[in-house]
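Example 9 (inverse folding). The structure is encoded as follows.
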């Protein structure tokens, strides 16, 4: 049974955690790894280095949007491909994320968390909550 009185605050907690995680990862790539270092890493794993800036900006701006509840459930859906890309990069390293080059469970967990956020919604105190995915109307009838 879902507690409808507290569910909006649970969604808020999920939104805060997910948004903060995306912002923290963008900060890590921008300040610690540096854009050039992250581009080099992408090249080492077989991805084009030019994806570094789009990934970092998506994480930063997407994290802020999720944190604020600005169409957060849609933003979470849009960020899932980045998380799935991270999952594919880390999958060969094994299960535990503290393994050399990180394991796959953390990106998998985050992808599922983003999907759960998209299903649940933005919750309490959202700046501009996105309507339910099931309420979308087709552009052409």
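The amino acid assigned to each position is listed next.
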């Amino acid at each position: 049974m879902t507690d409808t009185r507290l569910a909006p605050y649970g969604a808020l907690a999920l939104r805060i955690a997910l948004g903060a995680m995306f912002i923290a990862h963008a900060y890590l790539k921008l300040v610690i790894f540096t854009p050039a270092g992250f581009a080099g890493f992408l090249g080492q794993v077989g991805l084009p280095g030019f994806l570094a800036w789009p990934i970092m900006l998506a994480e930063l701006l997407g994290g802020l949007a999720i944190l604020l509840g600005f169409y957060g459930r849609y933003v979470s859906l849009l960020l899932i491909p980045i998380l799935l890309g991270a999952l594919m990069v880390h999958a060969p390293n094994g299960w535990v994320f503290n393994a050399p080059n990180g394991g796959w469970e953390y990106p998998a967990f985050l992808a599922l968390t983003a999907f759960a956020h998209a299903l649940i919604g933005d919750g309490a105190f959202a700046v501009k909550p996105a309507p339910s995915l099931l309420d979308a109307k087709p552009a052409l009838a």
